[in-house]
């Protein structure tokens, strides 16, 4: 106890999206999902439980969080304390190594790093699947950031069996992503609120879980075949099916911005010219391009004609969590 532990976790982008909760409190999803962990974007989190503290002290990128802003982290620390049978408060310091204003979700890497650092600092020795279950309680996408490469979150039915497992940690074919940063502002509708609204009101939502499960099976086969075109096609259609549920919600909403459509058109044009590239999007306007390293220079050259060079971030597949 009282040891200071630092863990690093990388963010991930889903190729088959998690969208909608079956149990909002435990964060059990309506469908299984599959992601790619990314190398350049990660969070380092240091946790130390200290008997001298009279409340949790949480800072992100050097900024001390207020009680309200730190609520999700404190609730997560309560879970860890409960598991470890301790009452001590903790000092948590987190640094996001995602370019500022990237608008890429940091909750995946953030809660995965917190789960790893806090559990170890509290004296728990959790296996990777147990860490994945714990990270899930902070943020759904964090469930997958425990592992590197392609990762599958098996939805399960309860707290014990809803967890991620590596699908292919060491990727031996050419695949990477380009993140196109279009809008640095905080998302208009947080993923948590967006999902809840869609599940409750979209008449199309019922079609989502079964179609996502079918896409997941096809995606796993495409990865085993190392078929970049099939992976890209499946990821793109899966993402657009997810986004269709927001337009059909009541009230309707969308994560698309005008620049999102512009980026999509550029990708489609590149593809019509024989370059393999596909797009995916999460609960925000930024577009992520799925492509090979080989064709990345040609894609970047085209994108640079429309977007600032420093808004185009190339991301190779990344590793799972590590203690540093
Ligand atoms: O767990 P959250 O709140 O980060 O939700 C993630 C939802 C999506 O990014 C849209 C899809 C996904 O599977 O990551």
From TrEMBL:
Q: Which domain of life is it from?
A: Bacteria
The UniProt keywords, alphabetically, are:
ATP-binding, Lipid biosynthesis, Lipid metabolism, Lyase, Nucleotide-binding
Return the Gene3D superfamilies for the record.
Answer: 3.30.230.10, GHMP kinase, C-terminal domain (3.30.70.890)
> Domain named Mvd1 C-terminal: which ranges?
183-310
What's the protein name? diphosphomevalonate decarboxylase
**Residue intervals of the Diphosphomevalonate decarboxylase-like N-terminal domain:** 9-164
Top enzyme class: lyase
Name the family the entry cites: Belongs to the diphosphomevalonate decarboxylase family.
Q: List the GO molecular function terms.
A: diphosphomevalonate decarboxylase activity
A single Pfam family, by name? MVD-like_N
Q: Which species is this UniProt entry from?
A: Loigolactobacillus zhaoyuanensis
Q: Keyword Nucleotide-binding on this protein?
A: yes
EC annotation from Swiss-Prot or TrEMBL: 4.1.1.33
